[in-house]
Design a protein that fits this description.
Layout: E1 18-21, H1 47-55, E2 57-58, E3 61-62, E4 68-73, E5 83-91, E6 94-101, H2 108-115, E7 126-129, E8 135-140, E9 147-154, H3 168-178, H4 181-184, E10 192-197, E11 202-209, H5 220-232, H6 238-254, H7 258-270, H8 285-288, H9 293-303, E12 309-315, H10 319-329, H11 343-354, E13 387-388, H12 389-395, E14 426-427, E15 443-448, E16 454-462, H13 470-494, E17 503-511, E18 516-525, H14 530-547, H15 551-570, H16 577-590, H17 597-607, H18 613-623, H19 625-628, H20 633-642, E19 657-663, E20 665-667, E21 712-714, H21 719-726, H22 748-758, E22 762-763, E23 791-795, E24 800-805, E25 812-820, H23 837-848, H24 856-866, E26 868-874, E27 878-886, H25 891-904, H26 910-925, H27 931-944, H28 955-959, H29 963-971, E28 979-985, H30 989-1000, H31 1015-1019, H32 1031-1034, E29 1035-1041, E30 1046-1056, H33 1064-1067, H34 1089-1100, H35 1105-1128, E31 1135-1139, E32 1147-1156, H36 1161-1173, H37 1182-1199, H38 1203-1210, H39 1223-1235, H40 1238-1245, E33 1256-1263, H41 1272-1280, H42 1308-1340
Helix pairs in contact: 3-6, 3-9, 5-10, 13-14, 13-15, 13-18, 14-18, 15-17, 23-26, 23-29, 25-30, 35-36, 35-37, 35-40, 41-42
Length: about 1350
């Protein structure tokens, strides 16, 4: 359990105009979030350069193995800039540096030879095959240590299904995975397992320690044996099939969100010509409900055989031993003569033959059940609009070509059809594509009442170019530079006053799951601003397509690309195994050469100087022409034919599909009235989890069009208007001027003046001698490391600093600033300091994106050049600012300069405030159209009553806020005396301390605004969970009108905070000096009662006691919820218990979230509540406790390799408002888990109340008709009278006393039978109550 779990603010990160390159995330930062310029996480040093570096010597002999080696470039020649290999190390307090001038060449012939050089695959990667046909991939990777990943990929997915098999691949995955006894045997060992189904494959994966946490035996054989049984030795028990059939149906309805429906629409039109547009992994629920066992086993028999599978093992393993174990386990499976079904080929042929004429009308609808995600209604025919795969081959540059379907493990012989089904694509990227045919790709429209924003997606489908030569790799680098430039330009437009868009995002990415590359421009805006948003997007695209990048932009992003690549190379030994495994899987699927991080960096050094402005501009001409020349194809062709040499591959392009997702209604001002839509295609489609899934459901155009919501008007927009806006020729486009980028945000002379004026110094942390100053140590540092290597410092201006050096991320670091206060300090009602002032105040600072006298563009480019990412947010208790940065080349000084200016000279801009208000208004308007959010909000409203500090501010509250009120509220918290800074990473401690003293020590100790005298105003009022409410206000139901049926329920109530407040002593606790807390006692077998009692006393007086007990309780409850509500009763696919563990507020809340169908949601909620109440009836066993311990300890051990986790451990170590957290907590965390007992868990359990008068419930349903019956709790109360008032209460007596112990002789099977009987009786009572109610109504008539 994290000692500081920073809760995300309710409002998600603001929409940002971004250009995405491959897997880079959209920018969401305060100041700048530079794109990951090298998203393939491989790195390097060339053989020639590395050899020279190794041969470099100095007076004392060869350099130490720990030396750092870099390659620097000269300043002349396109390719011939001389390389200098520089190596350095420390010896006896001296810095030893050696340099070697590397050979160069500058002839065009040499350049061509260089670019045609084949890439060398990662030498550590082991590819092989068993005699039965199973392929395996092994990669040693020591991060995290003593752990490994094993993923078994079956090359069969939804596109392999026949017309009457839609969803059967997903059901087979469920039955084989959850029906495996050996997979169950992994539980409690420290291993985690799961599975998912996608278009082309099904994957079973295990993350495991190298030794069993219970037995100490090696785990690799056990994991491989379990995966063998899962895939090739399943039982297909009828009982398991029925359980998973229910689970899949529940999964479908759970995830049938408006976001999923939009995803389906996008894929349906993007892949109109093949099965990817109609064979979604979740399938059709009406078919899922009907398959016989023989049909399910038939699909498994056709596809689950060794020659159709690939095993990936990545981690801290021995390669030879792993190969032997693979042979022992998977080698026992005989080969199969079955071949994959030709179903996908038949689907492709049917679609190509039956595609209708192009239309620009509204998109056809499909719905759950018989049409779940698989409508084959009219889609635009594009044979005449786009080129074929064969045509694309003709225009592919020499040495490269589109990936053939099934390009995986190309080095091993294998029938292609066994790897990928025959999915054909129609490309939009050859010269033939712009000749003849219809004038342009039509716009297809999808309208729905739950949509909130205008969203336009413009697609161009391209063949994948395998990355196998330096030329291929160089092209990928140029694409990243191109997209980074566009990202920056669009962001610059976004910060203008009242921007007409909420997001403009360009993504060019290879997709192994789709077997193609897709270029996508996505534009989002408020309905009224759609035309302005399209104009901005087209204007910036045309500017880049026509004029290219500036020389300053090119050099800036080449430098950033090199720095990012260098950092990744240095971090190559710390990349987690799961990340490397996913990269290997994707690379092999796409036909790429698999590179390690160091090699990729070496290759970049070889080609970076061959990247010229002309080549980047030529690439922009080609890749962006489908956007810049929409409906101007003849002009595009003429420009191309006039000078083909000015165009890069693939030549002129054109759109292959355009989809507009529109809200059915808007308010009278033209703003949105509904819910949101996704920004990323296909994000919700793969069935990725069994307990916490990420996909499922159906799409259907909203019906009841005549039912206009109150206060709304129709959003009337036709496809023709959108097409006209895309083709508008009157948009002015001019070349862009460069921006000056500062080398530093604080000039040296300014810092020197501040140091002379304010005389910064370190003072004792304990405050015992504030006038003293710690003496420097021999290594130049001041702070002494405590437990875990944590150093604590305090500056004379009051700023508290914690730091720990780690090698988790070489040459990288993270910094967190925390200020106590948060939303708890907001006032009541609407006003300048009222509800929402902290939420919108921090968002306003984030939107301003700058500090001091610098412009936002300058600060953003400064952060890009220094590889600094920053996020600012506020939660209920704290303002939190996180930085992730590179420490090389002055990175520590750069980030602390930025932090100094944020504390001293933050920028409060009216335009930024207006953007923040619009974002929160849009977020609030979407609340009523989101089933889950609206249900949770109703629970909060019932629990908190008129206290709205922790809910979304409403329009009245947002309108009442002003800039001065925001500044006052935020700066009351963000000042030196209320700030704690924690730093974790691979930095030089002496350098860090010097920069902390120089930049943070010179921050003024005086707050920028007067502080209130009332402590409640400074730190906020505690929250109060309401009591004494009528049951009708406590137990609610509500209905959302929608075309599709879904349901969810929340159960909630009061909970202690992270530190428990179990005793008065803890509640009044103060931080003890380091070492003053007694560590927990680990009892030996056969301990005496006196020793047990003493150990319990020590354990329960420990500051961590409450946090540990609550964490174990949460794990046990979640395990029981899954086993009972999901697995045994089949009422849900997803149910979870969570605690809002506050650090500063004395109490919080817990909640259970369960999803189901409208017909089962009441039973699902009742069953979930029954699990919570029955911990007294069904006792917690030692096995359950041991499994929960092993899970949490394993998670803790694994997370210790993560800087973000360490940042959470350090946060609040010096916070006066969190007095119980100290270094002793870090010392004893693992031991406290080991020492915890069942009685401790029951002690935590006794702090909760689960009776009808203490819990709050809300059931939310969507569909055309609401539920006929009220909450089942109200029904039970009406049926049972006084006898039903309190169905649950804890035994009398003090927590942990003998009378409070649960019975120890209850048979679990007997409990389950009794529990099912209880549910049946409750159903009968509910039915009787409904009949009585009907009779009373009839009698009243």
């Amino acid at each position: 359990m994290r000692l500081c779990q920073q809760r995300a603010v309710a409002l998600p990160a603001p929409p940002r105009a971004t250009a995405r390159c491959h897997s880079a995330k959209p920018a969401q930062a305060l100041l700048a979030r530079p794109s990951q310029l090298l998203s393939q996480r491989p790195s390097v040093v060339t053989a020639r350069h590395a050899a020279a570096a190794r041969q470099t010597t100095c007076r004392n002999g060869p350099l130490a193995p720990s030396m750092r080696c870099r390659f620097l470039r000269g300043s002349s020649g396109p390719l011939g800039r001389p390389f200098v290999a520089v190596a350095a190390c420390r010896r006896a307090g001296k810095l030893v540096v050696a340099a070697t001038l590397m050979e160069t060449g500058d002839s065009p012939q040499r350049t061509e030879e260089l670019l045609n050089m084949r890439l060398h695959q990662n030498e550590a990667l082991e590819l092989g095959a068993l005699e039965n046909g199973l392929r395996y991939v092994i990669l040693p990777n020591r991060s995290p240590p003593s752990r490994f990943e094993a993923h078994l990929e079956i090359h069969a997915g939804s596109v392999d299904e026949g017309e009457r098999e839609q969803g059967i691949a997903h059901l087979v995955e469920h039955v084989t995975f959850l029906g495996s006894k050996k997979r169950e045997g992994l539980l409690g060992t420290g291993a985690r397992s799961n599975a998912y189904t996608d278009f082309h494959h099904t994957v079973f994966h295990v993350h495991s320690p190298d030794r069993n946490g219970n037995t100490g035996q090696p785990m690799l054989w056990q994991v491989l044996d379990a995966l063998t049984e899962v895939a090739f030795e399943p039982e297909f028990l009828p009982s398991r099939i029925e359980k998973e059939r229910k689970a899949v149906v529940a999964e479908a309805q759970m995830m049938n969100t408006i976001e999923y429906r939009v995803d389906c629409q996008l894929l349906q039109y993007l892949h109109w010509e093949n099965a990817l547009g109609c064979r979604f992994p979740i399938g059709k629920t009406d078919q899922v409900e009907k398959w016989e066992r023989a049909e399910i086993m038939s699909f498994w028999a056709r596809h689950y055989f060794p020659a159709n599978a690939t095993l990936y093992v990545v981690g801290d393993i021995d390669v030879q031993h792993t190969k032997e174990l693979i042979k022992q386990t998977f080698g026992r499976i005989p080969p199969s003569l079955n071949t994959p079904s030709p179903a996908a080929g038949a689907v492709n042929a049917e679609l190509l033959a039956g595609a209708g004429a192009a239309t620009n009308g509204d998109a056809p609808a499909s719905s759950n059940g018989s049409s779940n995600g698989s409508s084959t209604g009219a889609v635009p025919a594009m044979e005449a609009v786009v080129g074929t795969a064969e045509a694309a081959d003709a225009s592919t540059p020499s040495g490269a070509g589109p990936t053939p379907n099934g390009a995986i493990l190309q080095t091993l012989p294998r029938p292609r059809g066994m790897i990928r089904p025959p999915v054909e694509h129609q490309w939009g990227c050859t010269s033939q594509a712009v000749r003849g045919g219809v004038p342009h790709a039509p716009v297809s429209v999808f309208r729905h009442r739950l949509l909130q924003l205008f969203q336009l997606s413009i697609f161009c489908k391209l063949p994948v170019l395998p990355i196998n030569t330096l030329e291929d790799l160089r092209r990928g680098f140029m694409v990243r530079i191109l997209l980074s430039v566009l990202q920056f330009r669009v962001n610059a437009r976004y910060v203008e006053a009242n921007p007409p868009f909420t997001g403009i995002e360009l993504d060019i990415s290879d997709s192994g799951r789709e077997g193609c590359a897709v270029s996508t421009l996505t534009i989002t805006s408020e309905p009224k601003d759609w035309q302005g948003a399209v104009q901005v997007a087209i204007q910036e695209v045309r500017r880049l397509q026509r004029f290219g990048v500036t020389r300053g932009e090119l050099e800036r992003y080449k430098t950033a690309l090199l720095r990012d690549s260098e950092q990744l190379a240095e971090q190559s030994e710390s990349v987690p195994s799961v990340d490397n495994l996913e990269f290997v899987m994707e690379s092999l699927a796409l036909g790429h050469t698999v590179l390690d991080q160091k090699t990729a960096h070496e290759y970049l050094l070889m080609v970076i100087d061959t990247i010229s402005k002309d080549e980047v501009d030529a690439l922009a001409k080609s890749l962006l022409s489908y956007l810049s020349h929409y409906n101007q194809e003849q002009q595009l062709l003429e420009e191309y034919e006039a000078d083909p040499s000015a165009w890069a591959w693939p030549g002129p392009t054109r759109a292959t599909a355009i989809v507009a997702c529109l809200p059915a209604f808007m308010d009278a001002s033209g703003h949105s009235t509904g819910g949101g839509a996704p920004m990323q295609r296909g994000a919700s489609l793969a069935t990725t989890q069994h307990v916490d899934p990420a996909a499922v459901a159906a799409m259907e155009e909203s019906g009841d069009e005549d039912d206009v919501p109150e206060g709304a008007v129709r959003f009337e927009l036709e496809a023709a208007a959108i097409e006209a806006a895309l083709a508008e020729q009157g948009i002015e486009v001019e070349a862009r001027e460069d921006v000056d980028v500062p080398d530093a945000l604080l000039p040296d002379e300014a810092v020197e003046a501040l140091v002379a004026e304010r005389q910064p110094r370190f003072v004792p942390v304990d405050g015992a001698s504030a006038s003293g100053e710690p003496a420097p140590r021999a290594d130049g540092t001041v702070g002494a490391a405590g437990h875990g290597g944590v150093v604590q410092l305090r500056l004379s201006n009051g700023i508290k600093v914690n730091y720990r050096r780690t090698d988790n991320e070489p040459r990288g670091a993270m910094l967190r600033l925390v200020a106590a206060g948060g939303r708890a300090t907001e006032g009541q009602g609407a006003g300048p300091l009222g509800v929402g002032v902290m939420a919108l105040g921090t968002r306003t600072l984030s939107e301003a994106g700058t500090v001091g006298a610098w412009s936002r563009e300058q600060v953003e480019l400064f952060c890009i050049s220094k590889l600094i990412n920053c996020v600012l947010e506020t939660d209920e208790e704290f303002v939190c600012m996180d930085f992730h940065f590179a420490v090389s080349d002055g990175g520590v000084a750069s980030v602390l300069q930025l932090l100094h200016l944020f504390l001293e000279q933050p920028r409060w801009e009216a335009a930024a405030m207006e953007r923040s208000k619009q974002q929160y208004l849009s977020h609030y308007r979407s609340l009523s159209k989101s089933l889950e959010r609206a249900t949770a909000d109703r629970i909060l409203q019932a629990m908190l009553g008129p206290d709205r500090r922790f809910r979304d501010p409403n329009p009245e509250e947002i309108a009442a806020l002003d800039l001065e009120g925001m500044r006052t509220a935020v700066m009351r918290q963000v000042h030196a005396g209320n700030v704690e800074v924690s730093v974790v990473g691979d930095f030089d401690p002496a350098e860090l301390e010097a920069c902390v003293l120089k930049y943070l020590g010179t921050v003024s100790p005086e707050p920028k605004v007067p502080l209130p005298e009332d402590p409640a105003q400074r730190l906020g009022r505690p929250l109060q969970i309401l009591g004494g409410m009528p049951l009708e206000e406590r137990h609610m139901t509500w209905h959302l009108k929608d075309s599709d049926e879904r349901a969810c329920a929340y159960i909630a109530g009061a909970a202690p905070n992270r530190w428990g407040n179990f005793t008065a002593a803890q509640q009044q606790g103060r931080r003890a000096a380091e070492g003053a807390v007694t560590p927990p006692v680990q009892l030996a077998p056969g301990a005496t009662p006196e020793e047990v009692a003493r150990a319990a006393e020590v354990r329960r007086s420990h500051p961590l006691y409450a946090s540990i007990a609550l964490g174990l309780l949460t794990e046990i409850i979640n395990s029981r919820l899954f086993t009972t509500v999901r697995d045994t009763l089949g009422l849900t696919y997803d149910v979870s218990f969570e605690l809002s563990l506050f650090d500063r507020l004395p109490s919080g809340w817990w909640h259970v979230n369960v999803t189901s169908t409208p017909g089962k949601i009441q039973d699902a909620m009742t069953a979930s509540l029954g699990v919570l109440r029955n911990l007294w009836v069904q006792p917690i066993t030692q096995r359950e406790l041991l499994r929960a311990k092993r899970t949490l300890i394993t998670r803790h051990d694994s997370d210790l390799k993560d800087n973000l986790y360490w940042l959470g451990l350090l946060t609040h170590l010096q916070a006066e408002c969190v007095p119980l957290k100290s270094l002793d907590c870090l010392r004893d965390l693992r031991d406290m888990y080991e020492a915890a007992t069942v009685d401790d868990v029951y002690d935590a359990y006794s702090q909760f109340k689960f009776d009808d008068d203490s819990v709050f419930t809300c059931i939310g349903t969507s569909g055309k008709e609401p539920l006929a019956s009220p909450s089942p709790i109200l029904s039970r109360q009406q049926a049972g009278g006084a006898a039903a008032q309190r169905p649950w209460s804890p035994p009398a007596g003090p927590a942990g006393a003998g009378v409070a112990k649960p019975p120890a002789n209850m048979d679990p099977e007997a409990f389950m039978a009794a529990f099912k009987s209880m549910l049946a009786n409750m159903g009968q009572q509910q039915q009787q109550a409904e009949q009585q109610q009907q009779q009373q109504q009839q009698g009243g008539r």
